[in-house]
Design a protein that fits this description.
With 356 residues, the first copy, chain A, is α/β, with parallel strands linked by helices. The first copy, chain A, is built from nine helices and 14 strands. The longest helix of chain A has 22 residues. The radius of gyration of chain A is 21 Å and the shape is globular.
């Protein structure tokens, strides 16, 4: 039976990435060695990391003055690195979910943190608007896509102070006007590569403005100077990222994938809105994530939650249970998820409706 | 032509690890999904990480009271995490090379650091002995194997204060009396797995004694509580580590591999000592590393350095150039390097001698 991978992360990667990973593990770039056992200082791997950074910049049209870094530790380490490198006195955070809350919590170790708005009282089911950002804040932090709750800020905000975004789960899903951001970071394990790496896009001139001593491994300037090779980088993960970005370029880049993502999300949201058994958790279409589509059973069918979960699993739908903290359902529709998987899910939702 | 992988790290892994990695990328544990795209919360991966930790503990005979962690960021991040979590007032460091120096430098951000001894004045070509460790130091830090300079502390030291060791390049190469250490850490990319992960073995009762606020991702207690899943761990790297440890167990564990490592090192050191063209950089056999065997051209044959490097490469010997900072040659003879590769290197050293 065909399996459909709706996991929220680590999550589906293009078959191209899988196939090329196997090739690279057998023989990397004609070296006779595996990508798993080659030195990061070999000329073949140096070409690989430089090529990956170049593709990253090309696909997102990153302007001059920005650096792309690949770091160990995941996005959660960035929750601490961002304030460590950028927070002098005060930072502003928008609280739109669990990850935004965690980022905010870590920042508090380094200075005053203003939560400009929060949707927590409504279980994070909308993106707050019309909040006031302190003009003297060192930066404003947003989580552009909220993987757990299924909301997304799909537009690049205009800010008067440096804008920092955690784009772990929507990077490369749409064109981004990088010039509006001072720093973008995220974990690799959604639209980029296997788990175990964070990417950072940073405008160089925002760095070097804090006076606290920063351990070398947590200092963006050190990694910029070392060209992401201050220490041994996650070699295989970078190789896999190069494959995913090559695939993305081959299919037309972020504009082309955005069109597909909008189309896939529409198919599923339309069915959730139509099917009498289900209810979307995010009412406002403007706030609905194109990457993580959350829904629950309609109140009168609450007792069908477990039966639907089991039915879906029996039909090859993997990873559609909601996050441990929310329950319900979540279908993640990342770049690599084919339209056929969304159609398959919609089809079994219809089938389940007919049965009940 | 057969390639021999003498890289210092990332470095050779068992063929078993390579083969099983390919299998896992095709289909992980019968899930129908790749190990590259499966959720870390799936029951199959939870079984994998728990199994890897169990094997890690079994092979090193880790006593009760110790935790094993798999963290992102590499050993270099541990240079900061160790003092952040353990340094209250004063720490003692033994300076035996570049990595030891880097560890010492990072510790200085967190308190007083006493360098109890250093072999820097002799290009780190020996392990200092008979130094005095301040009795009031919070811990004493050593680098058990010095990858760049080719020295190794092959015995477990008896200390009156907590002993911390960076075992990046000799973990699993010999039995270790874990009870003599409070914390052992290292990068995975030598005897364990591909690059992109650090392992930490920590005695729980040494933690929680510092008062500084610690960011969550840098707090060992947080990772212990999260069972290495506080954030998304490097899933594939952990899977690969499980394969390497399974291979090691199958061939008899650390006692068996130690015997092989001693044998391999003897073959190469004997040839370096015998061959009139070459000279070992480490004179005292007690201090000679079994993992990284360093040598240079004898003074009268200095001009043969480049020709030998090229000759060796033409014969399929990869990665035997010394570190960028030292020059000369270094053959890394990690667990997975077969005796045949050492014999092949010795054979071309003899051939080169005959030619010159």
């Amino acid at each position: 039976m065909k399996k459909h991978n709706f996991y929220a992360g680590p999550s589906i990667l293009p078959q191209y990435t899988i196939d090329k990973s196997i090739e690279g593990i057998k023989d990397f770039a004609g070296t006779g060695l595996s990508i798993l056992e080659i030195s990061h200082r070999s000329k073949e791997f140096v070409a690989c990391i430089n090529g990956t950074i170049a593709l990253f910049k090309e696909l997102l049209e990153i302007p001059a003055g920005y650096q792309v870094l690949f770091l160990g530790g995941g996005a959660s380490l960035q929750f601490a690195m961002v304030p460590m490198n950028m927070l002098n006195k005060k930072a502003a955070y928008l609280n739109t979910g669990e990850w935004a809350s965690k980022a905010l919590k870590e920042a508090k170790l380094f200075g005053e943190v203003v939560e400009v708005a929060s949707s927590k009282e409504k279980l994070f089911n909308y993106i707050p608007k019309n909040y006031i950002i302190p003009a003297d804040a060192d930066y404003f932090h947003i989580t552009s896509n909220n993987t757990i709750y299924g909301t997304e800020i799909k537009k690049d905000l205009d800010m008067k102070i440096p804008l920092v975004a955690d784009m772990s789960s929507d990077i490369f899903s749409r064109p981004v006007d990088i010039s509006k951001y001072s720093l973008i970071y995220g974990g690799a394990q959604k639209n980029l590569a296997p788990a175990g790496m964070a990417f950072v896009v940073v405008k160089e001139d925002v760095l070097g403005k804090v006076s606290r001593p920063i351990p070398s491994m947590l200092d963006y300037k050190v990694h910029i100077k070392g060209e992401s090779m201050f220490n041994t980088p996650p070699v295989f993960t970078i190789f896999a990222a190069q494959q995913t970005l090559t695939w993305l370029k081959n299919i037309g880049g972020v504009k082309a994938i955005q069109k597909k993502n909008i189309e896939k999300a529409k198919i599923l949201y339309d069915e959730i809105d139509r099917n009498r058994l289900f209810k979307p958790t995010i009412a406002d279409p403007e706030d609905r994530s194109l990457m993580n589509i959350c829904f629950v059973m309609a109140p009168e069918y609450k007792d069908l939650e477990k039966p639907f979960a089991e039915f879906a699993k029996s039909k090859g739908m993997l990873g559609i249970e909601g996050h441990r903290s929310t329950g319900g359902f979540r279908a993640s529709t990342y770049n690599a998820l084919p339209k056929e998987s969304v159609e398959a899910l919609v089809s079994i939702m219809k089938e389940f409706e007919l049965k009940n």
